[in-house]
């Protein structure tokens, strides 16, 4: 009980921050901004999260009841779902709109998210920030920064930017956590609209955990991120994908399976959401077979457009038709602060969000 009480304050702070409360303002000023209705609503929501709500146990997770020869999870605990993952999500969205906790635009985006597992923010990132980030990227290659990179050709292992041949820049690659060294990349990573949407979904603060920068398509097979970056509690993960240029159809665009976030999770056993190499072939087969239930599309983004996807959303990189074509983009992943309890060790604050600090060695 005491531990639960201990959890209340950080949750309460995060909830009222969503309504516009700020640490630098007085209690009276914050009350004026939030209103008494907002405060009561927040208190109720936090109490429900902390002490449990009998009504929550009656809600049904919105997972497809499918028959499949593959091992899948059934009867997951309610705590493994976010409020938007239940069948009554649309009614919950309407309630939040009614309470003034979200705008009409946010409500429409949430309904799209519930039905499809993703949402698009057109022209979300200013082009000047993107141009600044691409200049930083040129400099990182030129100065041979000691950043972690995966060169996406068969047999290549994770290495460092200063250790690869410059010609690797013309092959598909994944540069890890560029946000650590580029202020422009970090501002895109923690874009206000992305973070706000994450805060609404998580009902908690958002922690940026990694960013992947690409100059070519990845050709990654269809997958869901939750099996590789597995949060505890489950489903407290979202991803964003930012177009750093207009995306060409022959450059291996991001491929999407709308509605696929409702597939039951593959069971890596015993009741584990997390990937094991032994089960990789069966898991890949499960996704390939079951994703046929959903329409496949490609994200033909313009520079500055952003797509956010659900932790269990099936996506991948389409085959590259033109090896010379670039597909400059950045994919980012975020956890809910719920995964970290009250601890913010190893993190840096950025506006209302946080990002993980990781060590990058100085160049020689
Ligand atoms: O950009 C792509 O082709 C896929 C990226 C991706 O799946 C990810 O970063 O989670
Ligand atoms: Fe992914």
Largest sheet: 10 strands, mixed
CATH superfamily of the largest domain: q2cbj1_9rhob like domain
How many distinct helices?
9
CATH architecture of the largest domain: Sandwich
**Might you state the CATH topology name of the largest domain?**
Jelly Rolls
State the secondary-structure class: alpha+beta
* Helical proportion, percent range: 25-40%
Helices and strands, in N-to-C order? HHHHHEHEEEHHEEEHEEEEEE
Q: What's the rounded overall pLDDT mean?
A: 89
Rg, Å, rounded:
21 Å
Strand content: 15-25%
Q: Return the domain count.
A: 2
Would you report the number of β strands? 13
Based on CA inertia axes, which overall geometry fits? Answer: globular
In short:
The protein is of the alpha+beta class.
Structure notes:
Strand 2 (148-151) and strand 3 form a beta hairpin. The radius of gyration is 21 Å and the shape is globular. Strands 1, 2, 3, 4, 5, 6, 9, 11, 12 and 13 form a ten-stranded mixed sheet that branches. The protein has a three-stranded antiparallel sheet with strand order 8-7-10, with no helix packed on it. It folds into two domains: 1-52; 118-356, q2cbj1_9rhob like domain (Jelly Rolls, Sandwich), CATH 2.60.120.620. It has 364 residues and is of the alpha+beta class. Helix 1 packs across helix 2 (27-51), helix 4 (89-98) runs antiparallel to helix 5 (104-116) and helix 6 (127-142) crosses helix 7. It is 31% helix and 17% strand. The longest helix is centred in the first third of the chain and has 25 residues, at 27-51.
């Amino acid at each position: 009980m005491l531990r639960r009480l201990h959890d209340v304050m950080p949750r309460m702070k995060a909830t009222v921050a969503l309504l516009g409360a700020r640490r630098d303002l007085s209690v009276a000023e914050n009350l004026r901004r939030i209103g008494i209705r907002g405060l009561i609503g927040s208190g109720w929501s936090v109490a429900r999260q902390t002490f449990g709500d009998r009504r929550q146990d009656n809600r049904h997770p919105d997972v497809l009841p499918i028959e499949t020869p593959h091992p899948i999870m059934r009867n997951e605990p309610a705590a493994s779902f976010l409020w938007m993952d239940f069948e009554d999500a649309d009614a919950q969205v309407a309630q939040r709109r009614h309470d003034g906790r979200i705008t009409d635009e946010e409500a429409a985006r949430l309904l799209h998210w519930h039905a499809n597992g993703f949402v698009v923010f057109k022209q979300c990132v200013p082009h000047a920030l993107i141009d600044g980030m691409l200049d930083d990227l040129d400099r990182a290659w030129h100065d041979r920064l000691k950043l972690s990179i995966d060169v996406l050709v068969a047999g290549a292992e994770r290495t460092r930017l200063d250790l690869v041949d410059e010609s690797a820049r013309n092959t598909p690659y994944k540069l890890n956590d560029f946000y650590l060294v580029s202020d422009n990349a970090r501002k895109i990573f923690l874009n206000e609209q992305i973070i706000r949407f994450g805060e609404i979904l998580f009902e908690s603060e958002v922690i940026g955990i990694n960013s992947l920068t690409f100059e070519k398509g990845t050709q990654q097979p269809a997958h869901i991120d939750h099996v590789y970056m597995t949060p505890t509690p489950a489903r407290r993960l979202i991803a964003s994908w930012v177009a750093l240029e207009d995306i060409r159809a022959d450059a291996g665009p991001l491929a999407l399976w709308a509605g696929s976030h409702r597939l039951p999770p593959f069971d890596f056993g015993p009741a584990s959401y997390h990937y094991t190499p032994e089960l990789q072939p069966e898991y890949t087969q499960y996704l390939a077979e079951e994703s046929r239930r959903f329409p496949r599309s490609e994200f033909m983004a313009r520079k500055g457009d952003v797509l956010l996807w659900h932790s269990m959303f099936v996506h991948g990189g389409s085959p590259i038709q033109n090896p010379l074509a670039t597909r400059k983009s950045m994919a980012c992943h975020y956890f809910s602060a719920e995964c970290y309890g009250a601890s913010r060790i190893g993190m840096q604050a950025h506006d209302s969000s946080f990002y993980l600090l990781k060590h990058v060695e100085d160049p020689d």
